[in-house]
Design brief:
This protein is of the alpha+beta class and 165 residues long. It has 3 helices and 8 strands, in the order E-E-E-H-E-E-H-E-E-H-E. The protein has a single domain (11-135, 151-159), classed as Rifampin ADP-ribosyltransferase domain (ADP-ribosylation fold, Alpha-Beta Barrel). It has helices at 48-57, 79-82, 114-129, and strands at 11-15, 24-25, 42-45, 65-71, 76-77, 93-96, 100-107, 157-159. The longest helix has 16 residues, at 114-129. The chain is globular, with a radius of gyration of 15 Å.
Length: 165
């Protein structure tokens, strides 16, 4: 289910970066989706589907990864989705200027079909070519509310480092 919350209170970040538990994701880095653009925010989600898209569409040569993250400060709804495509934030997508701490990694997650992935890449590339792929990455005032139901998704396993509780 695309908009099903992965697990209540758990946030995810999809990328191709090879990171470790305890690392911090910070703003001020180049966008994974728009070459040459420095991002003012870090984006994350409470749904596995959105995290999978992030992992699959991120720039880079590595394999897609989905990290369990913990916000270290305030965050808000992602206006790129909540204002433009999905009013009310059913995708449970958020952004923050504060670092996100990596607390784990999901392993054995299932990606989208090759056909669906290619269609999404083609749509993304077309929107970049025709100039409609603008990311709203400036200040925004709407506060986030987090809710939804807990779910257990088959084949997604949470991996913690040895000795972690």
């Amino acid at each position: 289910m695309p908009f099903e919350v992965y697990e209540a209170g758990v946030y995810l970040h999809g990328t191709k970066a090879d990171l470790a538990v305890g690392d911090l994701l910070v703003s001020g880095r180049e966008s994974n989706f728009e070459a040459g653009r420095v991002m003012n925010y870090i984006y994350f989600t409470a749904t596995l589907d959105a995290a999978v898209w992030g992992a699959e569409l991120a720039s880079g040569d590595g394999r897609g990864r989905i990290y369990v993250v913990e916000p270290t400060g305030e965050f808000e709804d992602d206006p790129n989705l909540t204002d433009r495509k999905f009013p009310g934030n059913p995708t449970q997508s958020f952004r923050t200027r504060e670092p996100l701490r990596i607390v784990g990694e999901l392993v054995d997650w299932v990606g989208h079909s090759p056909e669906k992935l290619e269609a999404m890449r083609a749509a993304r590339d077309e929107s970049q070519r025709n100039g409609t792929a603008q990311i709203e990455d400036g200040p925004h005032c709407r506060a986030a509310s987090v809710g939804g139901t807990s779910s257990t998704l088959a084949r997604a396993r949470f991996a913690l480092p040895a000795g972690a509780v």
